[in-house]
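Late entry, guanosine-5'-monophosphate complex.
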Amino acid sequence: MKGEKGILFILSGPSGVGKGTVRKALFEQDPDLAYSISVTTRNPREGEENGVDYFFKTKEEVERMIEEGEFIEYAEYVGNYYGTPKAYVEQTLNKGRDVFLEIEVQGAMQVKENFPEGVFIFLFPPSLEELKNRIISRGTESEDLVKNRLLEAKKEIDMMDAYDYVVVNDQIDQAVKRIEAIVLSEHCKRERIAKQYKKALGSDVL
Ligand code: 5GP
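Prediction complete; structure with ligand written out below:
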């Protein structure tokens, strides 16, 4: 709709549930969506690119950004900082494009305070056993880190109640379809449309 602000979607879910894979598949289908690239202090994994997967920064750089209020939210996760730069999200929403954040739950709860109109989607594994296997078989992390990620996954699942939607990631294309359906429904919500047309309805056009 003309002049409409974009909607902020927040995608969370436990480590290993396949958030990154689903998000990439979603963006291939829907190039109009905008992805907010996060800042992190963790080391790049093989194949990850600066400015594509993350903005890889030092601890000092991230701490300066925190002090200057440059993040919508940030969190420490398994020993590293992760944060969402504010400027990109605000500018993109103001241009009318929907923005997706792929972030863990502590950060999502901070977004909820600042953007209560955001839409919170929780990606859920087909089963907890499967989640455990995926975290272990990723094989990019040491044993200690895997243990921490499993603990973190349990804590994250406990936070599911704070989300608006739950999408089970049994098959990537099905999970993408479900998220697309959520995006479409959110654009048809009466409150959003009423807000948009309030002025026109109060005028003498009809
Ligand atoms: P990974 O190291 O596997 O890329 O990410 C670890 C966790 O941090 C994932 O749950 C990922 O969604 C989350 N994450 C990525 N970017 C951000 C961010 O900007 N803020 C927060 N709070 N979490 C993030």
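Residues 143-158 form the longest helix (16 residues). Will revisit in the morning.
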